[in-house]
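Case study 2.
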Amino acid sequence: MARPNKSRFVCRMPGYQKFHPENRPEHPITILLTIEEYEALRLIDYVGNSQQEAAAQMNVSRTTIQVLYAEARKKLARFLVEGASLHIQGGNYELCNQTKSCCDSKKEKGESTMKIAVTYENGEIFQHFGHTEQFKVYEVENGEIKSSEIVDTNGQGHGALAGFLFGGGVDVLICGGIGGGARNALAEAGIELYPGASGDADAQVASFLQGKLQFDPNTMCNHHSHEEGHSCGDHGCGSDSCH
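Prediction:
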């Protein structure tokens, strides 16, 4: 017998469940947004939670919250662009205790937590993501660093490092050079990427929190041999040979 899906916790039911264009109330297409998709959208876009926080509220994994959120955004876009009717109903969910903080009104600006990881070597931002042996991970609350730790990657390759960060609940990665495959993996994991940074790791994280981080979004390690495990130290990733 198939194992039943785990219910997702929903803290607030939608106040309005049916929407349609004013000039076309009988649109032939009806888009169905499930209750848990609505809840993911509410927690992230309305309340202001991170994906990690929303996943914890709903008692699901970050992968699940990413799927729910992506589907909700896609359906909302269809509703706006196509002018179809939108109904919020159904799904697999369980109402949580209505006294929980997730049922409160919008968070005040800056009230959030996140994890920031930096490719790390001897206090500096390491410049070759695929060969990173250590990350320094910072716990941030309301814009302030509360703690940090250095974590070994145990020699994992670039393909596994995104999963390593995802498993550690990381929201943001600051690094030097990074290849296209790793970029895609990080994007799929919902991790924000700030490549092309250099210098003291602690100082650069502080700059990031102040909105002053110097980085280059186009910085890449694009050597085929690097993706296959060749050290890009010979090519100087982070310099002109590795954009």
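The longest helix spans residues 62-82.
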